[in-house]
Design brief:
The chain has two helices and four strands. It is of the alpha+beta class. The protein has a four-stranded antiparallel sheet with strand order 1-2-3-4. It starts with a strand and ends with a helix.
Length: about 90
């Protein structure tokens, strides 16, 4: 398992695809959240995830909430592989 953190423009096409696939699986399918997941915030976010064999096991994004870049917000926090503490671990990272 590899810890990765990248800004949007640093993501590979495969990382971006796996990130969006994981978000859709959890938020759209599993949690039935009806909202626009793809938003302009992804462009200015740092994307943090655990990856294994090309698959995302846990993910979150971090971005500045205010124009002065003093407030930071985490969002889209998810785990695919559950029961091993990845959610707490990725937030701690």
């Amino acid at each position: 398992m590899i810890f990765i953190n990248k800004y949007f423009n640093e993501l590979t096409i495969n990382e971006l695809y796996e990130m969006l696939k994981a978000r859709a699986a959890i938020f759209v399918v599993e949690q039935n959240c009806v909202y626009q997941d793809l938003d302009e915030i992804d462009y200015r976010s740092k994307h943090v995830f655990y990856e294994e064999n090309g698959k995302i096991l846990a993910y979150l994004r971090i971005f500045h909430k205010d124009i002065n870049q003093q407030l930071v917000q985490m969002g889209r926090i998810l785990t695919i592989k559950r029961g091993i503490g990845l959610g707490a671990e990725i937030v701690k990272e």
